TrEMBL record:
Compartment list: Membrane
Membrane topology, from the record: Multi-pass membrane protein
Organism this protein belongs to: Dinoponera quadriceps
GO (cellular component) term, any one: membrane
Keywords tagged on the record: Glycoprotein, Membrane, Signal, Transmembrane, Transmembrane helix
Name the UniProt record assigns to this protein: TM2 domain-containing protein CG11103
Family from the record: Belongs to the TM2 family.
Chaperone among keywords: no
TM segment ranges: 121-140, 152-174
Residues in TM2 domain copies: 122-167
InterPro entries in the record: TM2, TM2D1-3-like
Location, primary (coarse class): membrane
């Protein structure tokens, strides 16, 4: 550092004063960026909100616990309707190109829920169950094809199965066959 200041002093004697001040201030900004200043304007990259980063999808191990233990992260199962039932993992995230932050721009974010969404909407399925449930439309919509055919052939179990399925939907006991969660956007 002292050697650099001596060189700046020697060079400043031959240059004009404006260029010398610019060179000295450039050196000062480089030194300040080497350590994190919490009171400064830059936020640590790993603390940025989700709007400013792009994260990968959680890795699906499809029930293979050994693969998850080898890698150290990923999802063994997806879905769950209660907070306690949803598995959480870490994923690799990268800061968007035009965002300024301090620290590494690629990092792991912890606590990402193992949830995947498909084209299953709760409100739509409930309407199918109420209006066309005696034909098994709700079961077909959720991917339960076998029970949908049974419900169609028995006309909703003479109305009993129809009412039971409406109750099962409302209590969140009847869910999509593929294990995905209800899509939150209607």
């Amino acid at each position: 550092m002292r050697l650099f200041l001596v060189l700046v002093a020697i060079v400043c004697s031959s240059w004009d004063r404006g260029e010398c001040l610019m060179l000295a201030s450039a050196n000062k900004s480089v030194d300040q960026q080497l350590e994190y200043r919490p009171e400064g304007p830059l936020v640590m990259c790993k603390f940025l909100p989700i709007e400013f980063i792009e994260c990968e999808e959680p890795i699906d191990h499809k029930g293979n616990k050994t693969a998850k233990e080898e890698i150290g992260f990923g999802c063994v199962k997806f879905g769950g309707s209660r907070y306690e039932d949803v598995e959480k993992t870490k994923v690799s995230c990268t800061v968007l190109p035009d965002i300024e932050c301090f620290g590494p721009r690629t990092f792991f974010r912890e606590g990402v829920p193992c949830i995947k969404y498909s084209d299953h909407f709760f409100a739509t399925t409930l309407l199918y169950s109420i209006l066309l449930g005696f034909l098994g439309m709700d079961r077909f919509c959720l991917g339960h094809t076998g029970t949908g055919v049974g419900k169609l052939l028995t006309l909703g179990g003479m109305g009993v199965w129809w009412i039971v399925d409406v109750i099962l939907l409302v209590t969140n006991s009847l869910q999509p066959e593929d294990g995905s969660n209800w899509n939150p956007y209607v």
